[in-house]
Amino acid sequence: MGKINLDFEVKSDLYYLKVFDFSNWATIAKSPSIIEILRPGYTNPVIKYFDKNKVNIFNSIMLDANCINCDTDPLLVLEDGIWVFTLRGSHSPGSDRSKFSKEHKFLNTSNIQMDIDRIYIDSLSHPNRGHIIDKLTEIEFFLKAAESHLRYDMEKEAAMCFEQALKQTARLIECKTCD
Q1: Listed residue (110, 109, 129, 114) closest to 175, CA to CA
Q2: How confident is residue 177, by pLDDT bands cut at 50, 70 and 90?
Q3: 105 DSSP β-pair partners
Q4: Do 144 and 109 contact (CB within 8 A), yes or no?
Q5: Which residues are within 8 A (CB) of 62 and not within 5 positions of it... i.e. 6 or more apart?
Q6: C-alpha angle 135-133-125 in degrees, rounded to nearest 5
Q7: pLDDT tier for residue 144 given thresholds of 50, 70 and 90
Q8: pTM tops 0.85
Q9: 17: burial class by Cβ within 10 Å (0-12, 13-18, 19+)?
């Protein structure tokens, strides 16, 4: 059976977050587990039951991100930024919720990546393509720097790098002459 070891990985696209469970649940395999998902800019996490040894998939509806009385699409695009996932291995009445837990910070870049893709596509025949390539390289640098900072649990620095990538991307999108 082995030692309890919680481990998971997060992947995303515009509409879905996928949490891949790689845990060794050992003695708590039959106990209920939960995952807390804190969206960028929020202070209270959404708490959901977690299916062990499976891929758990979340969308805007499951994350309570949709407007209840609005006339909007059923699924909303999930926001970019730093998401915090906390997997809690044993969630039973009276249990120590922190005894078996793992936190993972994830930088969702699905939306900005779509913007960057559009810039690449639109700039292929642009007369000042070299300047655009330089700016795209800088944007990619800031995104990689944000991810690197997050891996070292430097959330503030990661957020600053990500914000810089957002600003640079917005400037390129708004650029008419790109001089």
Answers
A1: 129
A2: low
A3: 84
A4: no
A5: 46, 48
A6: 130
A7: very high
A8: yes
A9: buried
pLDDT at 127: 85
| pLDDT at residue 65, rounded to an integer | 83
The secondary structure element, H or E, covering residue 102 is strand 101-108
* Bridge-based pairing state of the strands 17-21 and 55-58: antiparallel
Report how far residue 26's alpha carbon sits from residue 18's, in angstroms, rounded to the nearest whole number: 23
Place of tokens 């804190």: 38
Predicted confidence (pLDDT) at residue 93 exceeds the cutoff of 60: no
pLDDT at 66: 76
Q: For residue 106, give the nearest of 144, 143, 140, 147 by alpha carbon.
A: 147
- Can you say how many angstroms the Cα of residue 64 is from the centroid of all Cα atoms in its chain? 16
What pLDDT band is residue 176 in, cutting at 50, 70 and 90? low
Helices of type H across 102-154: 110-123, 129-151
CA distance 143 to 45: 25
For the purposes of burial, counting CB atoms within 10 Å of the CB of 127, is it exposed (0-12), middle (13-18) or buried (19 or more)?
exposed
Q: Residues with Cβ < 8 Å from 107, sequence gap 6 or more? A: 81, 82, 83, 146, 147, 150, 158, 162
